[in-house]
Amino acid sequence: MAGITEEARPGSLPPELDDPLFRTALGQLDGALVHAAVPSAVAEVLRFPERTLSVSVPVRRDDGSVDVFPGYRVQHSSVLGPTKGGIRYDPGVTLGECAALAMWMTWKCALLRLPYGGAKGGVRCDPRSLAPDERERLTRRFTSELLPIIGPQRDIPAPDMATDEQTMAWMMDTYSMQVGYAVPEIVTGKPLSVGGSVLRPEATGIGVVIVVEEAVRRLGWSLAGATCVVQGYGKVGGVAAHELALRDAKVVAVSDIAGGVYRAEGLNLGDVDRWRAEHGDLAGYPGAAPVTNAELLELPCDVLVLAATEDQLTATNAPRLAARLIAEGANGPTSLEADDILSDRNIPVLPDILTNAGGVAVSYFEWVQDIQRLFWGRDEIRTRLADLMRDALVRVWALAEDESLSLRRAALVTSIREVADALGARGIYP
Ligand code: NAD
Predict the structure, then answer these.
(1) Marked catalytic residue, from 84, 108, 120, 190
(2) Adjacency order of strands within the sheet including 66-75
(3) pLDDT tens, 164-192?
(4) Which of 22, 299, 337, 379 has the least C-beta neighbours within 10 A?
């Protein structure tokens, strides 16, 4: 192999994917492969995305000038079905970041036994600098650039950072205009008026608490009376806090980017919601003591729900955490070093690919309803969601016990085996 550069060797990381987040995803995969016992050819295929697309998205600004933004879509694996994953608008979007997030989507879908592979995409832009009409033109042009590789049986986008129901409605409309008829099943996370699903907005937060409740039961205690701290009072954390309170847990602290509030006797969440609706964030809320986000993470509690952003638990704060159980509502909130420290301290961590999978589960229900043109009620969706989440938790818990693995490692191994079984059965084409 003399004269062949490192990047050109089979199995080495291609330079366009050389990104810290993709290296983390590969590191996690390699660690789990040691336990997964899947054929090496299958493991090799799973290390890289099946397909990547880089596009340039020209956008006419409101003042008549034109800016061109880089956009990406990465499909990690279509072994189990069409690929599924969000679209984000963020200045940090890179091909490598999308590749990492696409791989995690593959594991999340496989863990829940959804008939999907993983994908992720986005446009590198500052979403706050886009006026509403510019945002619409960017979305429609980006969707047009994706047309060769997306489709209701190929790749189904969804909202992610700085994209929302409206973005999905524009994507759905752009795709539908190209084919000549309405195709609601091309995206999920749409408004109800164009084929969205009830319970989709709340699904991730509800799913978090279903997993926590089942885990707590297995640990031999109950949520009733348990003290809970929730970092991030947004779409995931806000719903999770209310779901915990519905189960008679005592939510003693919550936070947003402006800081947190703490009341040992339990917060009045209705009151907290009214304050946020009026003032925009939690700062200055008079019904509880202020705490910083750093302090909030170290409060003594039974359950700590992380629902803000990545990299919150680190080698610095992990030795000081005083929670009995940690639930990852956010993606990637725990560093690899913190994970090891918590494992040594016997504090179980319910991993993100399991705990926050309620969103993609109800996205799957939305897609199924759209294809059938037959819509379900809230109760049916809630029951189906709870069944999927509990079933996944039971499998992960059993593997963790049987093979003495952390819950994170067990979740990843479970997912990898699901995909590997399918890939083994299908074979490597041709
Ligand atoms: P959101 O924007 O609705 O809420 C995020 C909350 O976290 C806000 O209250 C914000 O103020 C707070 N926050 C942000 N940065 C913070 C920081 N550094 N410290 C403390 N608080 C901070 O977002 P969301 O949809 O609730 O997503 C939260 C996390 O859950 C993200 O990691 C996201 O990727 C993940 N997630 C969301 C969904 C979903 O369906 N929304 C699904 C799966 C995973």
Answers:
(1) 120
(2) 51-60, 66-75, 117-124, 83-90, 155-159
(3) 999 999 999 999 999 999 999 999 999 99
(4) 379
